[in-house]
Automatic annotation (TrEMBL):
PANTHER family to which the protein is assigned, alphabetical: FE(2+)/MN(2+) TRANSPORTER PCL1
Organism: Streptococcus mitis
UniProt GO molecular function: manganese ion transmembrane transporter activity
Entry protein name: VIT family protein
Keyword ATP-binding: no
GO biological process, one term: intracellular manganese ion homeostasis
Keyword Transmembrane helix listed: yes
Keyword terms, alphabetized: Membrane, Transmembrane, Transmembrane helix
Listed transmembrane segments: 21-41, 47-67
Main location: membrane
Gene Ontology cellular-component annotations: endomembrane system
């Protein structure tokens, strides 16, 4: 894959994460706010109280969704960074074991042993760390998801 395609794929993956957070936020916002407003409206006919209750629920829900999204994506990012660090340590300590590990990952992902050996040798000439984390964990090397993007998307979607 060329660098241009790789950049496009990484950018697309990031936008999909923002879209996912937005859809989740909007869906949760519609359901929970409607529930609060209907509940308060059944208890009182005062429009001002119904409005304030709905607005307070919107703010609380938006901050809650944004916070949850931030924590979730931060945890994912931390886990991915730890996997990269783990593979870097393996490369630093035992290059042959790292080669065997990558070859096994290629085989597990459907390559025959001969192809796996060729791919491993080629990867170790270019960027072995990138190949290890992408094949073993499915992580886009150096393209970690930004938790702030997901949190902001979730907040705005819930609020709207």
């Amino acid at each position: 894959m060329s660098e241009t395609n790789h950049e496009i794929d990484s950018n697309f993956a990031g936008r999909l994460n923002i879209l996912r957070a937005g859809v989740l936020g909007a869906n949760d916002g519609i359901i929970s706010i409607a529930g609060v407003v209907i509940g308060v409206a059944s208890a009182t006919s005062n429009i001002w109280i119904i409005f304030l209750s709905g607005f307070a629920a919107i703010l609380a829900g938006a901050f809650s969704m944004a916070g949850g999204e931030y924590v979730s994506v931060s945890t994912q990012k931390d886990t991915e960074e730890a996997a990269v660090a783990r593979e870097q340590l393996l490369l630093d300590q035992d290059m042959e074991l790292a080669k065997k590990s990558l070859c096994a990952a290629y085989i597990q992902n459907g390559e025959c042993e001969t192809s796996a050996q060729l791919l491993t040798n080629k990867a170790f000439l270019k960027n072995p760390l990138k190949a290890l984390v992408e094949e073993k964990y499915g992580i886009e090397y150096e393209e970690f998801t930004n938790p702030w993007h997901a949190a902001i998307s979730s907040f705005i979607s819930f609020f709207l």
